[in-house]
Amino acid sequence: MKEQSTTKGFAILSLAGILAKLLSLLYVPLLQAIIGTGGYGIYQKTYEIFTFLYAVLNLGIQTAVAKYISELMAMNNHRDAQRTFRLARTLLLLVGTGISIILIVSAKFIAVNTGSPRIFMGLITLAPAIALTSVLCVYRGYFQGKGIMTPLAVSQVVEQFMNVAASLLFAYIFIKYGVEKGSAGGTVGTSLGAFIAIVYLIYIAAIERIDRKVYNQDKDIKRVRTKTIIKKLGMYGLPIALSAGLQNFGAVVDMTNVTKRLLYAGFTEDQGNVLYGILGYYKTLLYVPLTIITALATAVMPAIVRALVVKDKKTMKEKILFAIRISYDVAIPAAFGLAILSSEIYKVLFGKTTGSQLMLYGSIVVVFMAIVQIQNTILQAVNKFYFVVGSLCIGIVLKIVSNYILIGYKDINIQGAVVGGVLCFFVPMILNHRKMCKTLKFKFSLLRVASKPILSSLAMTIVILLLKISVFGIMNTYLGEGRIVNSIILFIAIALGGITYLYAMISTGGITKKEMDSLSPKVSRMMPGFLKRRLR
Fold it and tell me: InterPro entries this protein is in (predicted)?
């Protein structure tokens, strides 16, 4: 299987990420219908703990495996790239299994001490997923490092499909025994999805005979000692794991913080779970556009690492500016769209507009999250690991302090999380940008790069507002406000808004024919004539 270009890899991963996220979005209202908003709040709290453990153990090692394999591949050291993969797979299986056992044993203690005793059963059912996802992340890091994105992308869709199907089934089976068991049943698919994805990647590696093809290609290259491989994985993985761990530990602390501050504000535990569930909806929607940013980060990281190894500064600069610009191209219209269509989105997905104000005021966080994610990938690729840790720490502290103050006011309650989210990512974004410019010795303005997407998004917003005032108002008056009608309205708004944004971007030179063709020549050929004529 051949290595794929950054743009092609990005396109493949984006498509897979969108499909996986669509499955996830369909899953949320169905799960909520089964276990209720309070049950979904319990489910969200359970996942905060799991995500923390997952991030500490897996995100660091996946990036470390991908980064070191990219370095070895740049030096044509294929054999040691294979050794790195096999060694990491063994180590992560052992460590992941150990952490799964620890989580099962300490589930009660964690549940009680986070102020959420009802997540106890969910932590136990999620525990096996730690070991399984550890092995899965090593496989994904291996394919990522070699620049082979198709198996990685397919594994994401396979994993999410199995996750959704199994989680809904077990939630439905166990809800009859109580809300806690129903929400715990909704976590079972995480383990099954990871297992099926591992089986798929093992199969791909076997039929491609990846291990055997490379043994005779690098006979004259000096072998890397096992000790050196472990040291490199640790040197790369530890700070990345620390960054991911801090970010997700901040989420766990914030979960406890939010829960206790809601109680302090005068809400009961059940009311607090409902409000946390509403916050969960907001977070789920924020991460939809970030699926594309994650795909971009995954695809661009090996290219930056290889450019660093061979000292190709021109390529490195091109890849970095490409990543920042695409991040804006995706995140800015997403933020505008989520804000202006917040009510319609909530009606379609959750059957009500409760909580849509969070999205109306807080969608801007998507932009800051997207840029910080890409900045972190770039800084890690050029070995500025601990700076990322420091900037994340500052953001997390600001978020926790802000939430502690604001959520404690009953009139503000969960809406205070918007301010915390802005502070958590805006400040690190500024710090990261200054560090990047200093380290890479080239300057660019974040605001200038964002100007064309902002102007195009404003044009898109005007079109959607006009539709809401005229056509959509009439449709609601005569056809009612059921989910089917709102789904049609939302589809029309997204389609026309997307065409308007694309037309404005092409007209202003924000998107060129060369860039469209670099993703796939088929894309520009499939475009309507009025858009093709604007491409240059």
Answer: PG_synth_SpoVB, Poly_Biosynth_Transport, Polysacc_synth
Whole-prediction pTM value?
0.74
Residue 373 DSSP SS3: helix
**Is residue 170 within 8 Å of residue 185, measured between CB atoms?**
yes
- Residue 350: how many CA atoms within 13 Å on its side-chain side? 21
What percent of the chain stands above pLDDT 70? Answer: 88
Same domain, 529 and 386: no
How far from 175 is each of 128, 159, 353, 513, CA to CA, in Å? 21, 24, 25, 53
* Per-residue confidence band for 526, with pLDDT thresholds at 50, 70 and 90: low
Query: Could you give the number of structural domains in the chain?
Result: 3
Range of the domain at 498: 453-536
Q: Are residues 242 and 352 in the same domain?
A: no
Share of the chain above pLDDT 90, in %: 16
Helix, strand, coil tally for the chain in percent (to 5): 85, 0, 15
Among the listed residues 130, 129, 124, 119, the one whose alpha carbon sits nearest the alpha carbon of residue 57: 130
Please write the tens of the pLDDT for every residue from 48-71.
788 777 777 776 788 788 888 888
Burial of 268-288, coded b for 16+ CB within 10 Å and e otherwise, reads: ebebbbbbbbbbbbbbbbbeb
242 and 120 fall within a common domain = yes
With vertex at residue 359, the alpha carbon angle to CA 14 and CA 290, rounded to the nearest 5 degrees, is 15
Helix, strand, or coil (residue 186): coil
